[in-house]
Amino acid sequence: MKRIFIITLSCFLILGILLIPRSTTTAQSPNPTPSAGTQTGAASGITTVLNPSLDAPDLAALQRGENVTFRYLQAIDSTMIGPFDSYYLNVGIPSTWKLTEKAMLTLKINLDITIPPEAEKVYRNWLGPRLDIYFDDIYITSLRISKNGDHTFDIPLPIYQMQPVRAGSHFLYMYLDAAYDCEFDQSTVLTVKADSFFSLPHTPQEVGANLNSLPRPFFQLSSIIPNQVTLVVPDTPTEKELEAALIVAAGFGRMTTNSLQLGVVTASQLTEPIRKNSHLIYVGKGGSIPALASMGLPANVVGGQFKAYGAQADDGIIQIVPSKGNPEKAILIVGGNSDLGLKKAAQAISTGVVRAIYDPQLVVVSEVVPKNAVLQGNFAVDRSFGDLGYQNITLSGIGTARTEYYFTLPGGYRVSDDAYLDLAYTNSGLLDFDRSSVSLILNGTQVNSVSYTSEMRKEKSEPIRFPLPDYAFIPGVNTLVVEATHEVVYCTYYTSTDIWTTIFNKSRLYLPQSTEAVQTSAAPNLSNYPKPLADDPELSSTAFIISRGNSAALFTAAKIAEDLGRQSTSNIIDLKAVYQDDVTDDIKKDYNLILVGKPAEQPILYDLRNSLPAPFAEGSNIADESGLSVSYRLAPETSIGYMEFFKSPWNTNKVILAALGTTPEGLQWTGKALTDPLFTTQLTGNYAVTNGVTVYGIDTEAGSGTRNIGVTASPSMAITLSPASQALVDAIPTAIVDKKTTLFDVDPSLWVPYAITLITIITILVLIIIVAVSIKKKRDENFKIHDR
User: Fold this and answer.
1) How far apart are CA 673 and CA 660, in angstroms?
2) Structural contact between residues 563 and 618, judged by C-beta atoms closer than 8 angstroms
3) Partners of 445 in the beta sheet?
4) Fewest beta carbons less than 10 Å away: which of 91, 98, 314, 335?
């Protein structure tokens, strides 16, 4: 019987493992949608980055002020620990919102406190810890929470007293008083939930249309509404109009540190939802955009010409008006009656400073001075916080409190390493000086800090000097945070107003200009992008080559220009733009090139086939990666973005960036990969691809990549092609390859579970057979005995 069992089991195992055929079919199916949060294993030299989804309400609800959660304001669940603690949150209410009386804070908290047995009698009349709530330094209410668990409170906002005292931003402040923790062996933990939210019903107020205030109203720091701006160009923009649009995009990128949600459409693509929900910037000559004639501008368009008093034929015209469709939005017109005038207007915007003297809504630009002009006459090197528009500010409460100061550095102004801040402040004498401090954070970089001392209880005749490193400054809007950490001797009882630091507006910023030459970068590598393109302060050596009539290419080019503008250090942007069919030999030789479009629309790629890390066949949108160890074929409709960065074959001192996409969607992915910090930190090598969720990069020159990254980005689109079967596959009319394999050729994770299940079933069947045979044998023996 044992022999039967062993033989049977062996046979089934052999049949199950060796003789079961499997058919694997790989076809060119529709482009897959990658799952956010999924990371694919990478070969050597390939890096990946994921794009997490944002927890944000829909735009329509946000514009109504509904459910503005703490999480959307970039807060997380935060704990306040007794006996005393504080909580601070910036709330960027748009300046065009006039809140109604129904404005409300819905506060969700959790209390966790353990009462010791010896304190039960004392706690009979206990009211619980107290939570004091302030908004914009205005006391609102105090809450008493006596029971553990989750609690929700609806708290009206003091709309008639609220003032944006923190550089245009409102703020919420809460102070926890759990003094009982000092009397008994217990601790109080109060958690402020990130799903707490503001309800901000409001009526709109007309936006302030003033050219002297740029980049406002197009950009508001800390606004809960995304800064949505749409560039509108003529339906068939000329190269000069295209060039002006990219210069304007670069200028706003510098003014706002590339934090706009910038879109680009042609005049006929401008829909009513875009017109209603977005600020608009029209770029073009007077007769190029028909809608300008009916806007009632300060300088109206008559007969295809802007009519501005005193304007000459080659002057630039810049205007700003409120939007008629939405009073909360503004319309900026950057124009001229000639190509030269249009470029002057665009370059005036790129400086970041527009001076409207007679009419705040209109300026006429007679001349611009490219090159690095000395800006000392236009920029105050030594300025106080008062000069910047700030009053004295008091930071109160135990824990960390902070305030922000904003100042703008115009293009071309590089701060030297002699910069400093003379901070004039005084503080409460009740602090624990061993643990309290004041810190400076410049553009997200902590640059200095100092501990409080007992001598600082009174304001000194000389402020404290904090050196500011030159590397922390950026062109455009700079953010300086003064952060006070207030600690007290444990269980010493103070109210929130007893612990404070006051910062005086006579504090002074000294920002001298650097005279050192800008250092240039080495060979191009995506990990160093946008260098060496950004090494040219004016971008005057950079030329965009854009596919004609491709809206996605225009959008992507504007995003790249916006990001390059953020990096630029000149006072004026002077980049060049041409269409793909107008590229001259002089442009090839004299400029760094940025190619934007579908590969098949860029004939220059065929001329570059011997220089590209991954070349394209003439008329093809799919890169040829045959130089890598394994070659694949992708379906023509595959959406994928390509980035190739290499030295120009026409001038070894110049570089070429190919920002390409097989589809409009792929092109937009490329723009995001080159400009979004979620992706740019992971760019590497001279060749990268993206599927909109993940970026893959390799260095073909260093040999760090051996895997086909195009198919890695879109794996289900691929068909494996070996050299021996190339001709056979090409002869197959359908794009399907069938291959018979055994389980040894299949990923074990796909067949091992089935094999184990099969073996278990077979074993059970064999055991049943053995038991049945054994029972039958015994019955036969018993029958023989009785038969005798």
Assistant:
1) 11
2) no
3) 442
4) 98
Burial class (CB in 10 A: 0-12, 13-18, 19+), 286: buried
According to DSSP H, which parts of 638-747 are helical? 664-675, 677-680, 709-713, 726-731
Tell me what pLDDT residue 119 has: 63
Q: State whether residue 130 is helix, strand or coil.
A: strand
Distance CA 118, CA 335 (A): 79
Tell me the backbone φ, ψ of residue 562, rounded to 5 degrees. Answer: -60, -45
Q: Report the alpha-carbon distance of residue 595 to residue 547 in Å, rounded.
A: 8
Check: CB of residue 142 under 8 Å from CB of residue 201.
no
| pLDDT tens-digit series, residues 719-773 | 333 333 233 223 323 333 333 333 444 444 445 566 667 777 877 887 787 777 7
Question: SS3 for 689?
Answer: strand
For residue 293 the two structure tokens come to 């004639």
d(CA 473, CA 274): 34
Q: What is the value of pTM for the model shown? A: 0.70
Answer for the pair 69, 194: CB distance below 8 angstroms, yes or no. Answer: yes
590 Ramachandran zone, left/alpha/beta (phi>0; psi -120 to 50):
alpha
Question: 3-state class of 340 per DSSP?
Answer: helix
Structural tokens at position 346: 């665009």
Count how many Cα atoms sit within 13 Å of the Cα of residue 342 in the half-sphere of its side chain. 24
Rounded Cα gap, residues 104 and 199, in angstroms: 5
What lies within 8 Å, CB to CB, of 658 at 6+ separation is 595, 602, 605, 608, 612, 642, 643, 644, 645
Q: Which helix (H) or strand (E) holds 195?
A: none
Q: What is the pLDDT of residues 559-571, one digit of tens each?
A: 999 999 887 777 7
The residue count for the chain:
788
State the Cα–Cα distance between residues 344 and 360, nearest whole angstrom. Answer: 19
For residue 188, what are the β-bridge partners? 113
